[in-house]
Amino acid sequence: MKQLKGRVAVVTGAASGIGLAMARRFAADGMKLVMADIEAGPLARALAEIQAGGAQAISHRVDVMAEDQVNALADAAFGHFGAVHVLCNNAGVAAPALRTRAWESTIADWQWILNVNLMGVLYGVRAFVPRMLAGGDEGHIVNTASVAGLLTGANPYHVSKHGVSCLTEGLYKDLKLMGARVSASVLCPGLIRTGILEAERNRPSSFGPPTDIAAQSDDVKRWAAAFRSSLEAGYEPAQVADAVAEAIMADRYYVIPAQPFLQDLIRTRMQDIIEQRNPTIAAPPA
Ligand SMILES: NC(=O)c1ccc[n+]([C@@H]2O[C@H](COP(=O)([O-])OP(=O)(O)OC[C@H]3O[C@@H](n4cnc5c(N)ncnc54)[C@H](O)[C@@H]3O)[C@@H](O)[C@H]2O)c1
Questions:
Q1: Which of 95, 216, 247 is nearest to 159 (CA)?
Q2: How far does the centroid of ligand 1 lie from the alpha carbon of residue 276, in Å?
Q3: Which residues are catalytic?
Q4: Domain residues of the chain, as ranges?
Q5: In angstroms, what is the C-alpha Rg of the chain?
Q6: Phi, psi at residue 177, to the nearest 5°?
Q7: In CATH, what number does 8-274 get?
Q8: Could you tell me the mean pLDDT of each successive run of 10 residues in the chain, 286 residues long?
Q9: Index of the ligand 1 atom closest to the CA of residue 18
């Protein structure tokens, strides 16, 4: 899709962080917007900001964990604008003690994070892609994974993001094999300064209590503190949004706005696989 002006974009997780930055960038490029999020207050403020800038935009409250709500989002988007050209399945969550071992995350952690990060993206693909294809227009799906979808860890966040990378690469191939006018990109940000470490603000009580950092092992506590400082010193969400807009216009599949040390870790992992050598162990944070 060479140009974005006049086209319709749907962004989930649009009330904060990377999703809000994408909405701002798309609005600046003259797109019409459907901004979706679970948090009503921040979503209303984000919509008001985008509309004040002159863009045609609507908001829709959605919990991406619920397939019927994602279907209703698609109904609202197609109903209001008549077409959808860009879909960003971006809403996602993490626990602050993200780097737990497989047996240390609770089953509720696994279920909540996999439901939002992986099933939420799948519901988006199922609700929108057939209708985008049927519309016959050019289109683009951007699924937000993470560098965690290219690196590894036995925790729900890394596992959910691997699911998103696999799903999106398969989607890209299927669309190309069909000769479709709709394409796909996987977004794998590195460390970005957003509200992700406060993601448990949206954790339903049916998925267990929020993480008690004080109850974690010293290793996990150290890791969580180092991770928080790294995110605070991370890239701005606007940088990610610019990379996404450029990737859509260039039909570039991999969008990896990530710090050089993360790019090095990805390269090392890929080399481990190619050479069939055992996984390289990166030094834990000090
Ligand atoms: N911040 C980073 O460093 C980073 C790095 C890699 C990937 N990501 C991914 O980027 C995406 C956006 O996260 P962010 O960093 O901007 O965080 P953020 O917390 O600032 O924004 C996430 C948004 O998603 C919304 N959301 C959460 N659960 C939802 C649900 N069930 N249904 C609908 N909306 C929901 C939140 O209300 C919030 O507005 C996520 O998928 C995240 O995993 C972030």
A1: 95
A2: 34
A3: 157
A4: 8-274
A5: 18
A6: -65, -30
A7: 3.40.50.720
A8: 97 98 98 98 98 98 98 98 98 88 92 98 99 98 98 96 98 98 98 96 93 86 91 97 98 98 97 98 66
A9: 16
